[in-house]
Amino acid sequence: MSVEVIKPGLLTTLQDRGRHGCAMLGVGTAGAMDDVALRLSNALVGNAPDAAALEITLIGPRLRFLSATTMALAGAEFPARIGDEKIPMWQPVAVDRGAVLDVGTARHGARACLAIGGGFVVEPTLGSASTDVNAQLGGRALHAGDRLTALAPAVAHGRALRWSLDPRPWFDPDAARPLRLIRGTHFDALDDASRRALFEGEFRVGSDSNRVGFRFEGPVLRLGAPIEMVSEPLATGTLQLPPGGQPIALMVERPTVGGYPRIGQIAAIDLPRLAQRRPGESVRFEEIDLAAAQTRYLERESALDRLIGAIGERLTA
Amino acid sequence: MSKAAALEVAIEPLGDCALLLRFGEGLDAVANERVHAALHTLHAAGLPGVVDLVPAYATLALHYRPEVWTDSNGRVPWRNIAAAVRVIFRTPPIPAPRDDAIIEIPVCYGGAFGADLEALAAYAKLEAETIVARHAAATYRVAMIGFAPGFPYLFGLDPALHMPRRPSPRTRVPAGSVAIGGAQTGIYPTELPGGWQLIGRTPLVLFDAGREPPILLAAGDRVRFVAIDESRFHELAGT
Fold this sequence. Notes:
Chain A is α+β, with helices and mostly antiparallel strands.
């Protein structure tokens, strides 16, 4: 089974759930920016949640399927078609041998995952299929002419694929809803006006935002007094404040350590939502405490587990 | 550090999927040694749901999966794992198997290999040969790996060689560049953007994802630089 890349789109990469356990080598996690979209697209074709899929960014690719298979798209809202046939998202779709899939320009959001039955075969780098674009680890963005191979689908599909997931809990097209932010170690070091501005002000996603981090333009945030800091470990979602006063949320290709004050942390439940924000869109932050953030996270994980289990039953019924 | 004493640790959350363990402040070799002891102890403890342990200068991050740390009392995961970490550090740390072997790093100093050596000589008011002699005389300790895959931050730089970073970083620093940034010295493992002062270059490969282990230098290792000439550089580099 293989897939040929006719046009790569803006930035199409192979991703799984990330490269874990290598941070002490200075190696970041990479992986899908919208981890929920990755898991659901995989579930819809009968794959394990961490199978390698394609992450598509803003402008989708054109792909030729060299054998029959099943595919599923989840995440940002992309128009897709095979010939004259519209291809719906959030459901498994049987694809014929020779079919050419065209994924267009995202209508809402920025990133979607395209999984195919069996998953793409990728020689792992440090235990993961993920592409770290910035560190140039584990492959690179796809080029025209690339040929990807996939395993045989684990689940054979009949014609009974006329059902789809409700995307609403898993993709939020409303870019106006605030992102939930936990106070960081250095939140209290902000001056009074900056502490207010962080939760009351409006920010804009900077044009240089990418898989490494999102820069937020808006009210300039200042420390009450300078902090002497040496490099300390970071997490995905850490909101750092460089001297210019415009905060940066670190994403999956972030460095493992950094020396700027950590004023906040985007709650893990909202990282997939941040991954869907486009440059120029406005962003607001809403405070959540750590206990509530973890409670919401546990609720989301059990809801996802139940859904993935139910999809699996549907596919094998 | 007394081997028998328990490690004092301050635990703070680093968001909702990690803890930050603090063993001191600043660029302190003693605090850094505690971090390495803590790393070894946590590896040996094998707490469930821990996905990454990241040692830095005086702190160590423990990235975990909250779903593994729920309990029936409804206590939130971070309190459960923080309590488990405190229990681990109540007893003295397991001493890290200390390898006092010194890893030698051959370096061709100056010229095209170390574009800022003359600038450092002017800044430090020393002859370039003296800078090289002093840089190669010291024994260093790898405090941590960070910034980019395989980049070692070394403790032990002669204070006479301290020099601030360049006001504007270079967009491309060649792989193997040995550099000085403030009180620290380090080696760029791959071609990267960077603002440190470049004094030389090593032909050794510091990071190779396909090698086992991928990094040449790990946190805690001892290092010495050995000056080599250009023909020896090319011989070792195979160029």
